[in-house]
């Protein structure tokens, strides 16, 4: 029997579909900012906001991209990038530094409120509950969802936002942090994720088992890698490995 003791999971596009919630979050928090900021400026008889929604959103995106290049150690810390980009845009539009800081923080609060409104796959709750009886579970994500507020938080003993470690996947630091937390050897752990480069490669390099969630079938996978099209198929991998399920 395989001596598997720990299973780590990516979150976005592994335990839920991420594209819809990110699109709503992106437009929603920026729309909230413009709507409320306009009222605030009007009340003070200050000059009106000079950017339209689409123009402002594009400027916001470009500021994030520039920051990621200018401060490469922060390239994976998406909350920091967004906050600083908003501050820069607000100041560029004439707000004092203090007001820009407050409004950027308020917009990011709205971002996080919307960001956690993910809908886990219907099978995810039962799957994690069953796995939690046999294994210790952890989450490793490059996303900036508030880990303690996301709907599956209670199933993970530890959850790590790799960007906040300034070491986004495929950097192995987040994986090594989890292994150290559990005091376990890599061969006794498995990582499950949808990205070949960010999930499978670092897990495999450390000597962990890896499960790749992808509908693009590959018949030439390295030893130690198992491919499934949906997380609901994970129990089948465990059966194949003769691991408890």
Question: What does this 3D model show about the protein?
Answer:
The chain is of the alpha/beta class and 245 residues long. It folds into 2 domains: 134 residues, Rossmann fold; 97 residues, Four Helix Bundle (Hemerythrin (Met), subunit A), CATH 1.20.120. Helix content is 47%, strand content 11%. It has 8 helices and 6 strands. Strands 3-2-1-4-5-6 form a 6-stranded parallel beta sheet, sandwiched between helices. Strand 4, helix 7 and strand 5 form a beta-alpha-beta unit. Helix 3 packs across helix 4. The longest helix is centred in the first third of the chain and has 25 residues. The model has no long low-confidence stretch (mean pLDDT 95).
Entry summary:
This protein is 47% helix and 11% strand.
Beta-strand percent range = 5-15%
Name the poorly predicted regions: none
- The count of DSSP E runs of length 2 or more, i.e. the number of strands, is 6
Instruction: Kindly identify the CATH topology of the largest domain.
Output: Rossmann fold
Rg over C-alpha atoms, rounded to the nearest angstrom: 21 Å
Q: What's the CATH architecture of the largest domain?
A: 3-Layer(aba) Sandwich
Shape: elongated
Largest sheet: 6 strands, parallel
| Order of helix and strand elements from N to C terminus | EHHHHHEEHEHEEH
Number of helices: 8
The level-1 CATH class of the largest domain: Alpha Beta
* Name of the CATH superfamily of the largest domain: HAD superfamily/HAD-like
């Amino acid at each position: 029997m395989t001596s598997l003791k720990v299973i780590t999971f990516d979150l976005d596009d592994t335990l839920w579909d991420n594209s819809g919630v990110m699109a709503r979050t992106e437009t929603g928090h920026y729309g909230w900012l413009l709507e409320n900021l306009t009222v605030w400026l009007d009340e003070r008889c200050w000059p009106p906001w000079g950017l339209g929604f689409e123009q402002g959103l594009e400027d916001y995106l470009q500021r994030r991209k520039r920051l990621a290049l200018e401060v490469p150690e922060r390239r994976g810390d998406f909350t920091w990038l967004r906050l600083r980009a908003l501050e820069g845009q607000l100041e560029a539009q004439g707000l004092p530094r203090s007001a820009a800081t407050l409004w950027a923080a308020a917009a990011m609060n709205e971002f996080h409120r919307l960001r956690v409104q993910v809908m886990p796959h219907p099978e995810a709750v039962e799957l994690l509950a069953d796995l939690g009886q046999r294994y210790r579970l952890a989450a490793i994500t490059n996303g900036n969802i508030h880990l303690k507020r996301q709907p599956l938080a209670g199933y993970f003993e530890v959850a790590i936002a790799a960007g906040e470690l300034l070491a986004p996947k495929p950097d192995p630091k987040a994986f090594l942090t989890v292994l150290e937390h559990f005091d376990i050897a890599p061969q006794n752990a498995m990582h499950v994720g949808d990205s070949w480069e960010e999930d499978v490669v670092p897990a495999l390099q450390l000597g962990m088992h890896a499960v790749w969630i992808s509908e693009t079938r590959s018949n030439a996978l390295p030893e130690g890698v198992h491919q499934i099209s949906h997380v609901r198929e994970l129990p089948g991998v465990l059966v194949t490995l003769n691991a408890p399920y």
